[in-house]
Design goal:
The complex is a heterodimer. Chain A is built from three helices and five strands. Chain A is an alpha+beta fold. The termini of chain A are far apart. Classes of the chains: A alpha+beta, B alpha/beta.
């Protein structure tokens, strides 16, 4: 089974003011990619819904590539780590 | 911080008292994304602080050893974000980890940074007698909202921050209504190749800035090498670290009565005259000897037992000091003298073991003394605190330097602030803490100085954009120390500081509150930047949430309205545009003054800008050409608009590249 890692799916400026609506749209995007609501919920790590739109989810490389091709996606980046300065 | 604010001319007693004019930032909320907070520290007392600002929409999240009663009118918010970290670190055991699964700070870094930005006054604090004074933040009454996104990974003994967690913290902070976001975090170089927006912090910062939140980030500690600065997005305020005018001279007296002043934070008893050794083969021994600090453990115990050891190292990190001290202590030695390049990151050694740093010159003096006598001895006295001249200001050697490796035409760092040996609060469990206070060094400590200053500026000018605030601190910064002496940039070797070391210079709040003119940036300017660095129309439209088409041909990044001009590849003559907004008296007349970089011709049109109640914003053009016939390095100058009251100075940095995209070794 291909290993899934946390990826950040960045969608740019929010298209809606209601955070719940924004999060629901993220779940729908994941659901159509993964095939079921359960998988979508299991994969979702964060929904970014106040300052901008996007979400963090556990995705395999091929899933990340697939979702990156959607027109509403600005980019998909694998989770990275920062250090204290 | 017992010296920071007096040094920057921001003490409560300073004549033009900005602290009272701004009510010490009482209505401003500073969001800090870090390792959490130690709420019991006195720096979070809320004595005399009014009710929580009405625009606050955040909360105080309970968790392990932290509950909502730990928040107050100073520490008004505390949340934690760990999902990304947990997904990426399956070995992490929440139950066993030393870290608290809550906003509580294990590391102490977040508590230290929060103190510097907005800590309340705490009198008579020192580090075991050193650096005594009043600890406080830049905006002592501003509110603090801590977003814990960095976690301790026990099995690797590291503290790390997942970008998914940091991004969530930024998203929450934007929702909660913070006015300033302070991040003393950064990635390592080289950064994301394509563009900076792919970096989590840059992404979150972009949207925060569009919502009027100033985002201040540490520039990184990978100096003094060039092209190491991080957090380089043009919408972020990127901070370099300088030293204060304070040091900790530690007298070393040799057996020939010569006294050498090294640097240390040695607060133990005087070490009377003791045998001194530099481990080297006397010529008739088959033992192993090494005088290199990192290799002292190769020496036999007999070589070091009961003695003070001199060693040399090429490393400028404090790690080499502590490892040398460990080796000598283990062998039964009584102290260590480390000859090294200045590291600007002094630390005490464990258990008050005497470890004193000197430079190579003084180290060699000591070595020649050792070789000149049969039984060399020395005495080490406790460290003292020396404040003011002749202690000069330097850009700290660790402070990351420009040019910006992603977009060299965007000057980074933007500004500098004191970040070496800063005394502030920590947790009461942190190694080496003294009563919950500790001295730390890093651009982590410099960034919150700027965050505190930004809070005061926002209190005075709530309608200024983040770009206007950045412009105000850059164009009014000291390019000398506050007493008129030049600022050197530590490195091997020391040189006069230039814009790639400290951006516009050392932050000067007293001037920044009345900058005269500002170089502002709005959404269209950021769109210009993205078009110029190659984003496609659809991405930009998504990013900004409205249909956007880049002009054809695409705009030049040189025209981004920054308070600096940086031309990394000058060949033919270029003409660029800048626009200034008058924030001073409506009827103002400014004249231009140019200090051109070596061998570069700079012509400004027009030479005079006349503002009035109807004309608040004016543009000017700058024509730049080179007389050099070779590929040069960067040469520096400045461009000043002056109305004889305000001097609006922007740095000019120009590199001639007759042969473009070319690298050579000579």
């Amino acid at each position: 089974v291909a290993e899934s890692k946390v990826h950040i799916v960045y969608l740019g400026e929010k298209q809606h003011d209601d955070p719940e609506f924004v999060t629901e749209s993220h779940h729908q995007m994941l659901c159509s990619l993964l095939g079921s609501k359960e998988d979508a919920h299991g994969s979702m790590v964060y929904s970014y819904r106040h300052g901008f739109s996007g979400f963090a989810a556990k995705l395999t490389k091929s899933q990340a590539k697939k979702i990156a091709n959607l027109p509403e996606v600005v980019h998909v980046i694998p989770d990275s780590f920062y250090k204290l300065k | 911080t017992t010296r920071t604010w007096d040094y920057l001319g921001l003490s409560a007693s300073s004549p033009k008292n900005l602290l009272n004019e701004t009510n010490m930032g009482e209505q401003i909320i500073i969001g800090i994304i870090d390792t959490g907070v130690w709420p019991e520290s006195e720096v979070f007392n809320d004595d005399g602080i009014g009710s929580v600002p009405s625009h606050w929409k955040g909360g105080c999240q309970s968790g392990e050893m932290f509950n909502s009663s730990h928040c107050n009118k100073k520490l008004i918010g505390a949340k934690y974000f760990i999902n990304g970290f947990l997904e990426e670190n399956k070995s992490f055991n929440s139950k066993e980890s030393l870290d608290f699964i809550s906003p509580r700070d294990l590391n102490g870094h977040g508590t230290h940074v929060a103190t510097i930005a907005a800590g309340s006054y705490v009198q008579d604090i020192s580090y075991k007698g050193l650096a005594g004074g009043t600890v406080r933040g830049g905006a002592p009454r501003a509110r603090i909202a801590m977003y814990k996104g960095c976690w301790y990974l026990d099995d690797l003994d590291i503290t790390t921050c997942s970008s998914a967690d940091i991004l969530k913290a930024m998203d929450e902070a934007i929702h909660d209504g913070v006015d300033v976001l302070s991040l003393s975090l950064g990635s390592v170089v080289p950064q994301h190749g394509e563009t900076d927006i792919r970096d989590g912090i840059s992404t979150g910062a972009f949207h925060a800035v569009l919502k009027g939140i100033t985002v201040v980030c540490a520039g990184g500690n990978s100096g003094p090498e060039a092209q190491t600065v991080t957090n380089t997005a043009p919408w972020i305020v990127t901070v370099a670290a300088t030293t204060l005018d304070r040091s900790f001279p530690t007298p070393i007296t040799l057996g020939n009565n010569k006294v050498i002043l090294g640097q240390a934070m040695y607060t133990g008893p005087e070490l009377g005259f003791t045998s001194l050794v530099y481990p080297e083969d006397p010529g008739n021994s088959n033992e192993t000897f090494s005088g290199t600090c990192e290799d002292l453990s190769l020496n036999s115990n007999d070589t070091m037992v009961g003695k003070v050891v001199l060693c040399f190292t090429t490393s400028s990190s404090s790690g080499s000091v502590s490892s040398a001290a460990g080796s000598v202590k283990k062998a039964g030695g009584l102290g260590v003298i480390i000859a090294r390049h200045p590291g600007s990151d002094l630390e005490p050694c464990l258990d008050d073991f005497p470890c004193v740093s000197v430079d190579y010159e003084l180290g060699t003096n000591i070595l020649l003394y050792i070789r000149s006598t049969g039984s060399p001895v020395l005495k080490i006295q406790p460290s003292t605190t020396l404040v003011g001249q002749p202690v000069g200001t330097k850009v700290a050697s660790f402070s990351s330097r420009g040019p910006n490796s992603i977009a060299p035409a965007i000057l980074k760092p933007d500004i500098a602030a004191p970040g070496a040996s800063i005394l502030a609060a920590t947790t009461t469990n942190t190694t080496l803490n003294d009563g919950g206070f500790i001295m730390l060094s890093g651009t982590s400590m410099a960034a919150p100085v700027i965050s505190g200053v930004v809070a005061l500026l926002k209190a005075l000018h709530p309608d200024w954009s983040p770009a206007a605030i950045r412009s105000a601190i850059v164009t009014t910064a000291w390019r000398t120390d506050p007493f008129g002496e030049q600022i050197d940039a530590e490195g091997s070797s020391r040189k006069l500081a230039d814009p790639f070391d400290y951006g516009g210079g050392l932050v000067n709040l007293e001037k920044a509150v009345k900058p005269g003119l500002v170089y502002d940036l709005g959404l269209q300017d950021y769109v210009l930047y993205m078009c110029s660095v190659g984003y496609n129309d659809s991405s930009i439209s998504q990013l900004v949430g409205e249909r956007t088409t880049c002009s054809n041909p695409r705009p030049s990044v040189l025209d981004l309205n920054l308070p600096s001009i940086t031309i990394p590849d000058l060949k033919e003559e270029v003409t660029l545009t800048r626009t200034v907004t008058n924030v001073g008296p409506p009827s103002s007349v400014y004249k231009v003054k140019v200090e051109p970089p070596l061998g570069v011709q700079v012509t400004v049109m027009p030479k005079k800008l006349v503002f009035n109640s109807k004309t608040k914003k004016l543009s000017y053009h700058v024509r730049v050409s080179t007389r050099h016939k070779i590929n040069t390095g960067f040469y520096f100058g400045s461009l000043t608009w002056s109305d004889s009251v305000h001097n609006v100075i922007i740095p000019l940095s120009v590199r001639t590249q007759i042969l473009q995209n070319y690298y050579d070794e000579n």
